[in-house]
Structures are given as structure tokens and as C-alpha cells.
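Hi there,

I know you've been waiting on this one. I reran it after we fixed the sequence typo, so this is the corrected version. Both the input and the resulting structure follow.
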Amino acid sequence: MTEATYRPHYRQIEQSLRERIVTLQPGERLPSDAELCVEFGVSRMTARNAMQRLAEDGLIDRQPGRGSFVAEPSTHRRANRLMTFTQEMLRRGRVPSSRMLTRVIRPSTTSEAASLGIPPRQPVVHLRRLRSADDQPIAIESAILIGACADAVMTADLAHGSLHETLARSGYVLRRGTGTIAAAAATAEEARLLGIRTGDPLLVERRVIMDSHGRRIEATESVYPADRYALDVQFDVEAPDTTQEDD
């Protein structure tokens, strides 16, 4: 095996189990660490590392004294990490799909231009899609892309394919971004598309995404029903300042 194709043993086990989990039902038991050691010929620590990665992604439920089980499909995502909706749902064992609501080239608004760092009224691509998993509506996603992306996305199959993969094939490799998270009440149109009631709570995520050269390529707003999607947060606890005296 060459250096370019080498993968650590725990990653090989992890990938094998991911493929296995897709074929199983929630609650089904998975091999124990000891059984994985025998099956793959690895140490207990290697097996444990593979299982821990699956647990961190929410694919398995580790129950001390009982074992590891296939977890219920989740739509949570870590707040400090962004993957495509398609990739995210596939990793959760769910089938992603999209319905195109809007796909046009039009002049940018003042706020859109500010988000993307372009002059106002410059052409942009506006994509609005209803994103679903296992045919259940999960999000309404509205993406504003710089006009240079038009050739790549205007004819692409975005009902089944990934926008970010489409952009990458055209040389726009998205690397990092900034975002905000807020709450809102569903409008009548949002309620109709998502199959919820007008006024129901929504999670609203707004982000601006840049390519590997630091150029702002995409400004997106995604709205999710609050009971179908969540963002998991990892954080450090800041040590209290013990040098200040009490007032």
C-alpha cells in the first residue's frame, strides 16, 4: 500500500462500520470493542478510537455495560463544522433530496453585495431549495452566489447533487466561513413548505463562505424547523479571573 492510499487502521474500521450501519435499523447491536479486535486484528485502543468517532458523529449509542447500538437518525451538526447537506444526511444514513424553488441570475441587493464584498447591482445567482431527508422537509435554503459561478450552477442537477461539489468541479473550492444563528417564527409560506404551522419556531443559520483564496463565494440563509434540526456545540470553559477583588 502506498503512502498516498494508506489509512490508519481505526479509519478503516470506522469506514467499514459506517457502511454496515446504513444497512441496519436503529437499536441494532454492533460488535463490541473486543469483537472488533478479533474481526480486524487490531488492538482494543484502535477499535475504541473507531467507535468513538462514530459516537461523536451521532451514528451509534455507546451504553456502558451493555454495548454499542445503532442510533436513531439525527440531523444535528457541529456548529464549528460545515459539510454539504447531501454529505451530512448520507453520513446519518438518510436519503437526501432537494426541490428547486428558485434558480435565477439577477442584480444583487445592497445587503447581498455587502455580504459578498461586491458592488451593488452586480449579477448574482440566487438558488432557493427545499432540502429533505427521507422525504421529510428539513430546511429551506436560500443561497446567493457571485455571478462567476453561473456557468457551473445554472444547469447542474441540484435536485440530487451537491452545490459545493458542483462548485468544486469548476474550481471554486470552499474552505471556511463565518455565520450567525438566530430564531424566528415560520411565515405562512415557510410553514407550507416545511409541513409545520405558521408561527412555529425556526432555527435560522446565516453564513458567508469563502474559497481557498479568501474570496467570498456564497452567502446563504437556511431555516430549519426547531424540532427537526439542531447544532451541537463544543466549547472551552474560560477560567475565572481570580485577580479581581469583589466590589
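Quick highlight: The first strand starts at residue 29 and ends at 30.

Best,
R. S.
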